Every structure is written in C-alpha cells, then in structure tokens.
Amino acid sequence: MSNQKNSQKNSYQGFNTLLVTIDNQVATVTLNRPDKRNAFNDEVIAELQQVFSQLGTDTQVRAIVLTGAGKAFCAGADLNWMRAMADYDRSENLADADKLAQMLSTIYHCPKPTVAAIQGDVYAGGVGLVAVCDVAIAVKTASFCLSEVRLGLVPATISPYVVQAMGVRAARRYFLTAEVFDAKEARRIGLIHERVSEEELQDVVADISQRLCKVSPNALSVCKKLLDDVAYQDIDESLIQYTVEGIADIRASDEGKEGVQAFLQKRKPNWLG
C-alpha cells in the first residue's frame, strides 16, 4: 500500500510550470510562473491538461484547488508565446487554439469538483480558467479583464465558459470594452462566488474543499454532469424523463444505497471511513 501511495505521489512531480500537492484528499495545483504572472504558453497548457486528466481519475483525490504563485492568478497569454503565434498560418493557429480549448474542456468536465483560489489579478485566458472551475473564491484586491479586443483578438476559446459564468449581458460589456473590473463586480455578475481578504482566502478555500470531501464522490461526479445536461434546456417530457431516470439510477447505485442507509441508521456513510 505504501508503495502505491509513493507511486501516486511521484506521478505528480516533474512539472516545470506547476506545483502539485495532495493533502487530506485535496489536490492543489499551483500555476508556478510568478515571474511571468502565471501566463499561458504551450507548456503550461500541456501540463494543466495532463494533471487534471490524472487527478480526475485518482481515487485518492476528492477535490482539486487551482491557484497561482505570486501576485497574479493568471495574466493570459505569455508574451513570447504570442510572438511565436504572430507568424503562425491558419492551420497552425487551429492546432494551437485546439490545445487551449481541450485543456479548458478537461478542467470543466473533470469528474472531481474544482475550486479556483484566486490570489491575484486575472486577465484574458485566466478568466477562462476561473470560469471552468466549479467554485471560485477571490481576494478583494483581485482585478479582472477580458483584454483580447485591445490586441485585435477575441476571447473565443474561453467564451462558452465565461458567458455561462457571468451571463450574456455582462459578457457583452466586458468582452467589448476590455475594461478592468474588481472582485466586487466579479461577484455581482457571477464570475466568482465570494470575495475575501488575503488572510481569509486559504481558510475559506480549505473549508469549501473539506465540504466537498465529505459528500458522496459518485454523487458529485453525476451531479456535475446533471448540471450540464439540464442547464438552459426546455422543461419538456424528454428532460423530465431524463431526470426521472437520473434519480432512479443514483438511488440504485452503491453509494446511493449506502448514503440513504447511513442517514436512516444515523451513522457516517462509508465514504467518510
């Protein structure tokens, strides 16, 4: 057993742009390029894709926190990466953009709950990283900006997630004006869930993470998919039937049966054992 645990621990070492730790069933993925304000490049994208794919299937992990080192959570695209892209033809741009899109999709569809712990400023693609996480907590001093149009670009690959998070009306303003907005406004429009002091961030994120670790792992995974499947759908007979089958399936699952029995017997369910 100890060899298995050591093997799992070692599998998260060797990243060049990330720090990955696991403590009490919570994995923390830290963007670790503080000198570059944790900006994206090819390597960051590939390593995020890899680590969230691995953590999503790791039975020792119940929740994942994404945060950044230094003064910025993520400043969008790395300048050197942008310089290289300036000479790309369309096919090269398609391949490059697809890598970013697939990474965002991997985090968004991760079967484990994800929490963005936003310790600093968030620009451009960094806003996409916030939007793909299930829960987002930011320090009060954080600033946000969808700056793409200033550079003659658009926030295309992140747009499905950001629009879903902040709503179409807010997205129309902030996509088009590229203005900076603060954490208070980010909370008002729904991009983040809470704004806290720098001293409170770690404790608030730890509390949320432990709450996620106390509930049924299978129910969490199924619930994430349920949210995607029912959001913005017409409440017609097919959707109603889908929800009927969903509750029937989860009731018949091992964890569903265990959870109900534990509640009735006034004991802890086995996933807390």
Largest sheet, if any? Answer: 6 strands, mixed
Order of helices and strands: HEEHEEHHEEHEEHHEHEHHHH
- The overall average pLDDT, rounded, is 92
Low-confidence stretches: 1-10
Give me the Rg, rounded: 20 Å
The best one-word shape is globular
Q: Compute the separation of the termini in Å.
A: 17 Å
Helix content: 40-55%
Number of β-strand runs: 10
The spatial strand order of the largest sheet comes to 1-2-3-5-7-10
Structural class: alpha/beta
Q: How many DSSP H or I helices?
A: 12
The portion of residues forming beta strands comes to 15-25%
Core attributes:
single chain; 273 residues; alpha/beta; six-stranded mixed beta sheet; four-stranded mixed beta sheet; 10 strands
Question: Would you kindly provide a written description of the structure presented here, covering whatever features stand out?
Answer:
The structure is a single chain. This protein has 12 helices and 10 strands. 51% of the residues lie in helices and 16% in strands. The protein has 273 residues and is α/β, with parallel strands linked by helices.
